[in-house]
Amino acid sequence: MNNYNDENINRNRKRNRRKRSNQKKPILLIIINIISIIVIIFSLYYIILWYLDNKSTSKTLDNIYSNANISERPVILDNNVQTGVLSVDFDKLKSANPDTIGWIRVLGTDINYPVVQTTDNDFYISHSFDKSYNKAGWIFADYTNKNLKNEILDKNTVIYGHNRQNNSMFGTLTNTLKKNWQNEENNRYINFSTPNKTMIWEVFSTYTINAEAYYIQTHFSSDKAYEEFLNTIKNRSNYNYNVDVSASDYILTLSTCTNIGNGRAVLHAKLIQNNIQ
Fold first, then answer.
1. What is the pLDDT of residues 28-68, one digit of tens each?
2. Distances from the Cα of 164 to the Cαs of 58, 110, 137, 177, 258, in angstroms?
3. Shortest CA distance to 61 belongs to which of 124, 121, 139?
């Protein structure tokens, strides 16, 4: 009799455990479904924002290209290489945004933008050329290059832009890390100009590196410190451009995220011709 009762008790316990387990499953499924729906909603929200930011950026660029009277003329460099320089109406650009300090174009990429500068390195991370809020940001010069608005260059002029997935801003700067870009000689001559200075810069180093402050220094305590800096950034290059740099040179640095960890894609070029007529 006792054995019979014990078996009944055990069966009832097993039945109750199964019942409780079955009751938990629908609750767990409901929680999983709710979480999935929340994730989908947030993903759609950010996709829509990304799309709207890109659409706004494209509209801004269309306005710039149609109003800035952009034209190109060929020039022969001192090394007999032919390239082109852009002429733009900086007065119109400045009337649209007084923060405009220059224009940059990198052949072999989609980089072809007016460059702005303000009193910090934060504003244009999340604001467009028209100063509207936009996560695509804009192409901007480091605020520590304080004399750029007076068209006076520091030893290292630093320009930033987001690495956008639709290739806008500095989304194609990573092209410069590829052999097919590096092997095309004309790609190595960058047109970065200010309102009264038409300048050509020659690339001498391209590489990726973790985020750091070293390569974005704009001022140096001595020629020796600057030479050490130049040697360091030149030796980092993933391609040998066979370009000499010295303490007498002015350089241009372009920087963007690699979208892998906290990596940065970096390009350095030196000024080779200024005030081209």
1. 777 777 777 777 765 665 566 666 677 878 899 999 999 99
2. 13, 11, 10, 16, 10
3. 139
127-153 pLDDT, tens digit per residue, is 999 999 999 999 999 999 999 999 999
The residue segments making up the domain with residue 60 are 1-67
Give the confidence band of 170 by pLDDT, cuts at 50, 70, 90: very high
240 & 158 share domain: yes
* 32 and 168 assigned to the same domain: no
3-state DSSP call for residue 200? strand
Residue 56 backbone phi and psi in degrees, to 5? -65, -40
The two tokens of residue 267 are: 């390009």
What is the amino acid identity at position 182? Q
Number of domains in the chain: 2
Q: Are residues 83 and 181 in the same domain?
A: yes
Q: Are 84 and 193 in contact (CB under 8 A)?
A: no
Residue carrying the six token digits 């500095």: 170
Helix (H) / strand (E) element for 21: namely helix 2-67
**16 and 116 fall within a common domain:** no
Residues 140, 56 share a domain: no
Q: In terms of domains, do 122 and 209 share one?
A: yes
Indicate if 12 and 77 belong to the same structural domain: no
Domain end: 17, 33, 67, which one?
67
Q: Are 157 and 251 in contact (CB under 8 A)?
A: yes
Torsion angle in degrees (nearest 10) through CA of 213, 217, 85, 78: -120
User: 262: which DSSP letter?
Assistant: T
Using pLDDT thresholds of 50, 70 and 90, give the confidence band for residue 15.
Answer: low
What SS3 class is residue 251? strand
Biggest CA–CA distance in the chain, Å, is 112
